[in-house]
Amino acid sequence: MFKSIVSAFLVAALGANYVAGQEYDYIVVGSGPGGGPLAVDLAKSGHSVLLLEAGSDLSEDPMYKNLGMATAASNDPRSRWDFFVKHSDDPERELKYRHMTWHTTNGSFYVGLDPPEGAEQLGIWYPRAATLGGCAMHNAAVFHLPSDDNWNYIAEITGDDSWKAPEMRKIFEEIERCNYLANGTAGHGFSGWVQSSQDDGAWLSNATDGTTFLRVMAESSGSVENTNGSAISLADLKTLVNRDINALEPNRDQQTGVFGMATHSDAQGNRYSPANYIKQALQENPDLPLTIEMNSFLTNIQWDQLRDFEPPAVMAIDYVTGQSAYKADPRYDPSKNATVGFAWVAKELIIAGGAFNSPQILKLSGVGPADELKKHNISVVADLPGVGANLGDNYEGGVLSLAAKSFEGTLGRYVLQLKTSASEKNRDIYLWHLNNAFEGFWPGYPDDLGPKVLTIPFVHMDPRSTGAGSVTLRSADPFEPPEINFRFFEGDSEKDLQAMLEAVKFGQKVKSLLPESSGLTPFEELHPCAGDGTGCTDEEIKEYLKLQAYSHHASGTCKIGDVSDPMSVLDSKFRVKGVKRLRVVDASVFPKPPGAFPVLPTFMISKKAAKDILEDAK
C-alpha cells in the first residue's frame, strides 16, 4: 500500500501519525439517518463495512435520550457543528435578521441587530450534530411521512417505479416498530428497527390550560363535527390527540385538523435513533462485520483512473481520527494532533454526510462543477454542476406572545395540519405550540421569556420558492466549512408567503378564541405583529415572514434525477453520475424538501439504498 499525496500532506500539516489501511467491502461516511442504518443493513448481509463517524457516542447521555432536552442537545458543544448560513444575496436584507450571529472581540457570540464594535458577522446559525446517530440525536424526533406526491415525483422524473408511494410505504412498514397502535394495523410496521411512539393524551384528565388550549385548536380547525354548539368533550379531545398522522388512508395528504405527534422514540418516550440500531446490532452479534471509527473525518477520495475506457472508480479513502477535527466544531483546536488513516474500498463508498458536507466531500475529491473546482486547484474527476446546487428547505415561522398569566400544567404534545388557500391539493402547514420562546435557531436559543410565553410555530410544507440555494467551497481545505446560501423566497414566492400568512392568522385566531375564564387572555403579541396582533396589514406580516423565516431541514444538494438532466447528481439508485463505486444516501438526495420533517424520509431511503446496493452486489 502507498500513502497518497493528500495523506502525506495531512501527516505534515497535523503532526499526525499514519495508520496503514485495511480493505472493506463498503465504507459508509456518516452515521446519521441515512448512513447509520445502511451500514448495519450491509453488515447484516455479510459484507465487511467501515462506518466513519466524525463525533463521539452520546446516545446514553440523558440530554440526548430525553426528547424534552432536544434544545439543550442542539446547543451542546460536545456534538454541535456551527454552520453560519445566508438567506439571500442581499447584505442589507441579511442584517435585518433578528438573530444574526456575530463573533465579538472577546471570543463570545453576540446575537441581534446591534453588534458591539469590532464584532465579525458570522451569519445565521444552523447547527448540525456530529455524534453517533447524527442529527437524529438532537432533533425533536418528529416522525412524519411526506405526501405521496413527494415520492411519486421522484418516480416520475427518474422513470423508476420503485420510488412510487405504495412501494415506499412498504419500506416504511419494513423499518418501523410501532409502539402506539394495535399490532397489525394496516400501513404500519411492528418488527422493524426504528421505534415510533405517540403521546396517549393522559394529561387531558387534569383539566389544565392545555385542555382549554386544545379545545380551541380543535374548534378553530374544525377537527370535530359539532352541530349542537356544545363544548367538545374530553373523549373527543383524546380521540384527536391519538389520531394517527401516518395512517394508511387514501386521502391522508388532504386531511387537516388535530393529530397526535409521532416521534422516533421507544415505548417509554426515550429517543430511538440510528445509534440504538447500530449498538443493538453489535450486541446481538459481536461478530457482525461492522467496524466503527468514531471521531473520524473523511478528507479525500482516491480514484482508480488507469482505464481510459471506463469512468474513474473509487479506490480508497483518506481520513483523520481525532476529536473535533472539523473547524465547525466549537472545540476545534488546530494544535491538536490527529492520526491519519487510509482504507481500501473493495466494492463501494457511500457518502452520508448530510446536505452541507456531502457536496463538500464530493467537490474536494474532484466531483462537482468544473469551474468551481479549478478555482481551488482541484483536479476535475467528473464535471457535475448539480453538486452543491438545489439547496432547499421548508420555511418556518410562528406567533410569539405573552399570556396574561403563567400556564398551568402541560400543554400536551400534538400537532395541527392546515390546508391554506395557496395549496392546490395537499395540506401545507404543520403547526404546534410551545411554552417557550422558540423563534428559530441561534447560539443559546431560545430566549427565556418566563412561564407566560406561548409560541405557535409552524412549518410550511412543499414550498415553491426554495431550491435556489447552494453549498460552495471556501477553499480546498477539507476542514473548512463551506459557504452556504439558501436564497429564500427567490422567484415566485407569493404563494409561499400567503400560506405562511394564513398560518400566522390561524395562530392569532386561536389566541383570540380562548375564553376569558381561562385567565390567559388578553395576550400581548411580540411577533410578528406587536400589541394585540391586529394592528398589522397582511403585507407587513408577509414582509416580516420574508425577513425572519428560519429553517433546519436542509436537503437537495446531491439530488436524484433523470440522468440526462445536467443538474442531477445521482441516478435513481443513488449512484453518482460520471464515476463508479460511489453513492450518496442522505437528505441531500431529495430533489424537493420531503414533507415537514426529513428524518423519517431519510430513514426510508436508507433502507431503499441498502436494497439497491445489495441487489447490485449479487
Brief synopsis:
The protein has 618 residues and is of the alpha/beta class.
Please tell me about this protein's structure:
The protein has helices at 5-14, 35-44, 62-65, 70-75, 91-94, 148-158, 165-175, 209-221, 234-241, 274-284, 354-364, 370-375, 494-513, 538-548, 599-617, and strands spanning 17-19, 23-29, 49-52, 80-85, 101-103, 109-111, 120-129, 176-178, 194-198, 257-260, 262-263, 290-293, 296-304, 313-321, 339-351, 367-368, 382-383, 395-402, 414-418, 429-431, 453-460, 470-472, 483-485, 524-527, 582-584. The protein has 15 helices and 25 strands. 25% of the residues lie in helices and 20% in strands.
Q: What would the average pLDDT be, to the nearest integer?
A: 94
Helical proportion? 25-40%
The N- and C-terminal alpha carbons lie at a distance of 28 Å
Q: Which term fits the overall shape?
A: globular
Task: Give the structural class.
Answer: alpha/beta
Per DSSP, the total helix count is 15
Share of β-strand residues: 15-25%
Number of strands: 25
Low-confidence stretches: 1-16
Biggest β-sheet description: 8 strands, mixed
Blueprint (SSEs and pairs):
Blueprint: H1 5-14, E1 17-19, E2 23-29, H2 35-44, E3 49-52, H3 62-65, H4 70-75, E4 80-85, H5 91-94, E5 101-103, E6 109-111, E7 120-129, H6 148-158, H7 165-175, E8 176-178, E9 194-198, H8 209-221, H9 234-241, E10 257-260, E11 262-263, H10 274-284, E12 290-293, E13 296-304, E14 313-321, E15 339-351, H11 354-364, E16 367-368, H12 370-375, E17 382-383, E18 395-402, E19 414-418, E20 429-431, E21 453-460, E22 470-472, E23 483-485, H13 494-513, E24 524-527, H14 538-548, E25 582-584, H15 599-617
Parallel strand pairs: 1-15, 2-3, 2-15, 3-12, 8-9, 15-25, 16-17
Antiparallel strand pairs: 4-7, 5-6, 5-7, 9-11, 10-19, 13-14, 14-15, 18-21, 18-24, 19-20, 20-21, 22-23
Helix pairs in contact: 2-10, 2-15, 7-15, 8-13, 13-14
